[in-house]
Design a protein that fits this description.
This protein has 420 residues and is mostly helical. The chain contains 17 helices and 2 strands. This is MFS transporter.
C-alpha cells in the first residue's frame, strides 16, 4: 500500500496542476503555455534525475533514500503553496522533479525484493491501481480546494507527502538484495555506472519491453491529451459531458490493471514461462482491436462500450510487463533498469502531444482530422503487440535463465542483515 501511495503521489501532483489551471492563470497572471511549463519542467528534470537515481538505488539503503526524497517533495510542494511569483513556483517545480525521480527506480527495486517472483504481477497491479486512483483524487481534491485558493491545492499535497515520508521511514524495513534466491548479493562499491547502463541495454528482452512500453505510453498520452476534444467534435457534446465520459476509460483501465497481473502470475505458476510477455502483448493487441470500432462508431453509447473494453486492455498492459522486467535483470541492477525505462518513456510521452497535434494540423485541424490522427497512431499499440508476441516471447526465457545464473554467481551464503 505504501509503495502504491509513493507512486501515486507523483500522479496526484500532475493531476493537481491540471485542476488548478484557471486559478493559477488568474492569480499569477500567466498564460496556458506557462502553466504547461510547470509540468514540463518537473517532468524533464525528473527524466534526467532518474538516470542518477537508478544507480543510486542499487547502491544505497533504498528505504532511507525513499523517505528523504519524499521529504524533499513535501518541502517543494509547501514552498510551491507559498510562492509569491511564477518564477518562484517554477523553481519549486525543478526541486520537485528531482525528488519525484527517485520513486520509480526505488519502488521497482523494493517490489523485486519484498515479493516473490510468482506474485509480482498481482503486486504491480495494485501499485498501478493506486497510481490511477491517486491521479483521480488529485484532480478532485485540488479542484475543490482550488475554488478557494490554488495555494491550498499544493498545500494538501505537501501535508500528504510529509505523512508519507514518515510512514515509509518508520514502517518499511530494508529488504535483503537478491531475495529472489534468499541469499546475499556481494557488494561491489566500485561498479561502473556506464558499464551497468550498457549491460541493461544489452538485454534484448529489456530493449523490446522498453520499446513496447514507449509505444503504448505514446498512444495513451495522446489519448489523454486530445480524447475530450475528439469526443466533443465527433458527437457534438459539451466538454463537461465529454470529461465524464472519459471516466469510462478510467474505470476500464482500473479493471485491466487489477486483472492481467493476476492472470499472468497464474499462468506462470502453471508452467507457461512466457506468460507475462504473452499477456502484455495480447493486451496491446486487444486494445487496438477495441479502439478501432470506438473511433469508427456513429453511436455514442456504442463508442462508450468499445471504449470501456479498450481501456481495460490498455490498463492491463503494464502489470505483467513490469513484473517481467524484474525477471530478466540482475537484482543489483533493478534500479538502473527502471531508470533507463522511465527516462525513455518520458521522452515518448513528452513527444506524443506535439506529434498528435502536428499530424492533426497537417490533416486539416478539424474534428474529422483528429479522428483520422488517432486511426493513424493506432499503429503504435499494434507494433508494440508485435514486438512482444514475436520477439520478446522467444528471447524472454533465455534472458530469465541468464539473470538467474548471474544471481547464483554473485550470491554468498551469508544472509544480509536487514538495514533500517
Amino acid at each position: 500500500v505504501l509503495l502504491a501511495l509513493v507512486v501515486g503521489l507523483q500522479s496526484a501532483d500532475a493531476g493537481t496542476v491540471g485542476a488548478l489551471v484557471v486559478p493559477l492563470t488568474q492569480s499569477l497572471h500567466i498564460n496556458n503555455i506557462q502553466v504547461g511549463l510547470l509540468v514540463t519542467v518537473s517532468t524533464g528534470v525528473g527524466a534526467v534525475a532518474t538516470l542518477v537515481a537508478g544507480p543510486l538505488a542499487d547502491r544505497t539503503v533504498r528505504v532511507r533514500l525513499l523517505w528523504m526524497a519524499l521529504l524533499l517533495c513535501s518541502a517543494a510542494m509547501a514552498l510551491s503553496a507559498a510562492s509569491p511569483s511564477y518564477g518562484w513556483l517554477l523553481a519549486c517545480r525543478v526541486a520537485l522533479g528531482a525528488g519525484i525521480a527517485v520513486s520509480g527506480p526505488v519502488v521497482a527495486s523494493l517490489v523485486g525484493d519484498y515479493f516473490k517472483p510468482a506474485e509480482r504481477g498481482r503486486v504491480y497491479g495494485l501499485v498501478l491501481a493506486g497510481e490511477g486512483t491517486c491521479t483521480a483524487i488529485g484532480l478532485l481534491v485540488a479542484g475543490e480546494l482550488g475554488a478557494l485558493s490554488w495555494r491550498l491545492g499544493f498545500g494538501w499535497l505537501a501535508a500528504v507527502g510529509f505523512l508519507l515520508s514518515v510512514a515509509v521511514g518508520t514502517l518499511l524495513r530494508e529488504p535483503s538484495r537478491g531475495s529472489r534466491l534468499g541469499d546475499r548479493v556481494t557488494d561491489a562499491p566500485h561498479r561502473s555506472v556506464w558499464r551497468e547502463l550498457r549491460w541493461v541495454a544489452s538485454v534484448r528482452t529489456n530493449v523490446v519491453l522498453i520499446a513496447a512500453s514507449s509505444f503504448g505510453y505514446f498512444f495513451s498520452t495522446g489519448l489523454s491529451t486530445f480524447g475530450v476534444a475528439l469526443l466533443c467534435g465527433r458527437f457534438e457534446i459539451g466538454q463537461s459531458v465529454a470529461t465524464m465520459l472519459i471516466a469510462v476509460l478510467g474505470v476500464g483501465a482500473l479493471t485491466g490493471v487489477l486483472t492481467t497481473g493476476r492472470m499472468a502470475d497464474w499462468l506462470t505458476h502453471r508452467g507457461h514461462i512466457s506468460a507475462r510477455i504473452m499477456v502484455g502483448g495480447a493486451a496491446f493487441l486487444a486494445a487496438a482491436v477495441f479502439i478501432l470500432p470506438t473511433l469508427l462508431a456513429d453511436s455514442l453509447v456504442l463508442a462508450l462500450i468499445f471504449a470501456f473494453f479498450a481501456g481495460t486492455a490498455m490498463g492491463g498492459v503494464n502489470p505483467p510487463l513490469n513484473a517481467a522486467r524484474l525477471d530478466i535483470v540482475h537484482s543489483r541492477l533493478w534500479g538502473t533498469a527502471e531508470a533507463v525505462r522511465s527516462t525513455l518513456v518520458s521522452v515518448s510521452t513528452g513527444l506524443a502531444p506535439v506529434v498528435f497535434g502536428g499530424v492533426s494540423a497537417a490533416l486539416g485541424d478539424t474534428p474529422g482530422a483528429l479522428g483520422d490522427t488517432f486511426l493513424i497512431m493506432l499503429v503504435m499499440p499494434i507494433v508494440a503487440a508485435g514486438l512482444l508476441l514475436v520477439v520478446a516471447r522467444r528471447t524472454y526465457p533465455r534472458d530469465v535463465a541468464t539473470a538467474m545464473a548471474s544471481e547464483v554467481l554473485t550470491a554468498t551464503t551469508e544472509p544480509e542483515r536487514c538495514r533500517t
